[in-house]
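Table S7 (text form). Paired inputs.
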Amino acid sequence: MKGKKVILITLGISLAVGLFLSFNNLLQNIWDRFVIKTNFNLFMPWSSKVVWIWSQGEDPNIPYTRFVYHWKQDNKPRQAQLKVSCLGRYQLFINNQSVYHGPCFAIPPKIYFDSIDLRNYIHIGENQISIICNYLNLPIHEYAFYPEPGLLVGGEISDGLIKRNFADHRLWRSAPMKNIQNGEKIAQNAGFVEINDLSTQNALLPTSKSIIKFDYAIYPRPIPLLTYQLIVPKQIPDSLFDLGRFAVGYLRLRTNFRSGCSIKLTWGVGVNKDNAFQPNFNQIDQLKIPAGKVIWEQFSRRAGRYIQIEKNNCVGDFDLELNGVSMPFNEAKLPIFDQEIDQKIYQISANTLKNNIQDHFEDSVDRERAMYLGDTLAMSKCLISDGNNFDLIKEMISQFAQSQRQDGSFPSMTPSGIKQFIPSYSLQWAALLDLYLSKTNDKEFAQEMYVVLRGLINWAKNHESENGFLYNKQNSADWWSFIDWTPFDESYEFSTSLQLWYFRALVSAGNIVSLIGESNDEYINRANLLKQNLIRYSFDNKTGLFSDSFDEENRSKGGLIINALAGKFNVFPSQIENNKALDYFVENFITDSPFSETWIIDWLVKTKQYDLALDTIQTYWGGMINDGATSVYETYRPGTPMAIGTYSHSHAWGCGPVYLYKNILDKNSAMETLLDY
């Protein structure tokens, strides 16, 4: 009897649970249909929630996906904020107006979201939010590789008691976009040409699906939103448009053609002496445009000074604008110059800095958009030239700290989907942290970064020779001994430039641990020993120069860059030898890139050679201007044209005149300490 009762009770419970679940699912389906149809939900506790969504019609071969949220607004909203991010690039439209491009990329597993205030774009009546997300299933320089797509949404519209929440996948409709395609790559490991058919209608949008991504930690972006400035180009002959300067942003094209036609948009850096247009990498976008009034706001960011428009069977009117984009920061005031060339040099240096400060410190805005450690140190010196912008620099230091490799070194760039290692750049992280702390005295941050610093110095120690020289001890395949694009004599095992950056890192480590109240004897003693061994093995008493490379028995020739670094880091045996080296190179203080050329000027200014420093700046950066530059090149040697399509035409590692002029004009400038880094 007892066995039958147990069976009956079990069956009864199972039936009750089944009926309850079925009824619950029925109610849930009815509620979901009601929510989708009326766009009404009451999940008020979700005001701070964000959710991951994606298209149910997912097609991995279609890189662009569109998401739409539609609602009717009865009153002017008190609050209206959208939280959004994407595992790739996104473009946000509100009521068919392009509002923002994002996101700000973090180091996985972190994900940053942007918070966009919608109040100025919402009107009474029908409203629509549209987000285009571009997911690339491949590694590129600009941001980390994500193995699967996702759009993060959240936030709400509040009319007081009534709140409309964006964190509900049922209210978002989405579908892959078949009218936008990726063409060829702009450059290696960079973005793609955009091919856009505006005459094709995309498929109807089904409801989005909710996806779960437990592996990501979600944070609000730690730096301000980017700002936009409208630039109207001037039309010049041969279908060319001149922006007046090298600019970065998103094109907006308004057309009113009599019939459908096609347009090709090519970005360029200039027009040569033969009036031939000079394209800037493969930034060539193609549009198919229908008849009538059309407004196209580009998804992909572009950069250059000139835009060439080639129309095919297009009859009618069109207008072209650029939404220039950059990070807001405190820009240094333009100094008063006696010579016009100095003002032009300062302006192109400041313009390059402004263009390249985006969501991170980009090396080249017209190509890979990566944040390299060496570039970040160079740009930070320019940002600090007015004694400000420390929050931006602190965030970039933190991003590299978060990307530290297990052995204590750093990748050459971050966030990035490309694995690359440059040992001299790893060492420059210590100098970057030291530079920031020397201006802020931020002891709390110094303490936070101490464990990261220890990891870096331990990595270096593990790669030392018996005499304390840093080298590729394990013959690692990913060890790129890059210092600068200027050629070096690397005949021997030890690179002097790498030892000099190691010396600078040890000095910086001593400064940092001293700030947090720890003894710096270990680092100062190691720095002094390294200096003594460099003088013993790398310094040639006959020539009075440090060699490019050496071993215990041999030395190569001594180049300009090596000796400039030795001079700015105070490594020469005495000031007499330092001055002799300056005299040796006095007829030619020119290198192959503005990156290293800045070190040369640092050396000259530090030794009070102000007139010579000014003359060298005018020769080098002035030479770029004479060759038509409105932004600082990645590589350059006066008298030698830069190869088009090989190196970047906007490289902020050459922004040095922004702070160097201050030291030259004000011979006792408080910014003189920048010369030491």
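Next pair, protein 2 of 2.
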Amino acid sequence: MKDSNMIKSLIISLCLSGILIQVHAQNEMFTLLQKIKVDNQGTAGACDGSAFNTKGDIIAASDNTGLTKLFKVDDGSLIRTIRHNEGEVSAANGETNVIHFTSDDKFSVTGMNKTGAKIWNLETGEMVKNIGHGQNTDGAAFSPDDKWIAVAHDRFCAVYSLWDYDKVAEFSVPKQEVNAVDWTEDGSLLMLGGDAKGVMIVRVSDWKLLHDIKFPKHRVKSVALSPDGKYAAACGQDGLACIYDISDGSLVVTLSHNTKTAKALPGDDDDGDEPNVEAIEWSTDSKYFFTGGTYDGIIRAWRVADWSLIGWVQGQEYSRQVETLSMSSDNILAAGGDEGYIYLFQFNPPVVKNLIRQTSDEPISIEAEDFDTNLQQGCHWWSVINDKTASGQEKVQCFPDLSKDKTGVISEYGILDTKKDSPKLDYRIHFSTPGVYYIWARGQSYDHYGNSFHVGMNGKPVESSDKIECLGENNTWIWDKDTKDNAPATIEIKEAGPVTINIWPREDGIQIDKLVLTLDDAYQPENEGPEANMRLVRVK
């Protein structure tokens, strides 16, 4: 018993320190390839900018002393150093925010405050052009066809011809700064983001402003257009990232990040408006979206099909902010930030399953182990366990099982904080019939301290289906649909179509074999329950 209590105490201590969650977060979705020191000042400096060249064999990363360093991706060795400014520098005037390559990898651009944007010949290392000297430059990018360069100056974004550097267009955010720019992959659209809630999408053929979008908060820190040309993303204050439809500028989804416990450490950026989502990026196939910032050092991966959080990885030390994200052509994700390092991860997209299909208004039967996502968070995780008594010979169980007393109750879930949140299982279902569904669960536990869980929808808790209890004899499967509120567990599906159903443990040790969702309030499954529904609807 003494040893058991010691193990519990050790696990809780590791969880609170952030060590345990790092171990369990390093799954096959992210493989660490390189960790490269960029700023010799370490946490007193930062890595604020990053970019891959077109070939994907070079990563450029900038520091807080005016230096941009080019490294080989395969071994992390230094190839070249570019000094943006001359003379003494400090964190106040040495922060290099901008790096970008031309499509032929022959030139790059760097940018920082008071010295504008500088274009460099990468073969000779010489500066070719200084655009906007004396201006603050937080964003700059070459068009994909190398005809133009867009530069975010103090109060406006200007587009210059790369043939003669004449200004061809200018867009302003009145009395505020422009912080970021991006182009669609075909070069037909330009996006810019800045202060005063400014997000703009411009048509390149005639430099016409198509969409003038208002971000929910004052400052936009970064923008990113999806490679397939469908979405425009912007991120900024209060832990927000917003996705917009490029065709009409309408809001698609707002992705929130928990910022309640975020605090800047010595050496970190703190402009008085923190914590922000500082960096965003897309996967090469546009099926996944990545966010970073908010002083937790974490990169979050979101599935575009339903905008669910499906994975995460530590991209900087915990409590250090991610400042920049970049994706190579072969899905290598770079993350730099206030630790002063650039991390290179191979992103391995998860297996995408077809949707679970409902035919007519039949009950929907789901094997618990047939999930779409198993998101490990906090001190706990879900594991698939072989069990001959389970309907599909497998079950899911929440570990570690500390539930010999009330320490097994997991107090928080669905709070968007990977350090404290409860682990989550996702099940993507195509509902053919709207209505109020009763939720039955086939579950069991080793003791009465580990027999409850929550069901939510589209990543959010649902009050009518939380605290579901499977009350029965220990180590015996039982069907139950009641919650601790002495009411049947229900969810309401308002329209036909795809919905993501979520499961979070309320108590560790809970074991779940199967779920059944039914419109019939008199229905009760028996024995192993109905055969699981097939996955027949293709994911678009």
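Residues 452 and 469 are 4 Å apart (CA to CA).
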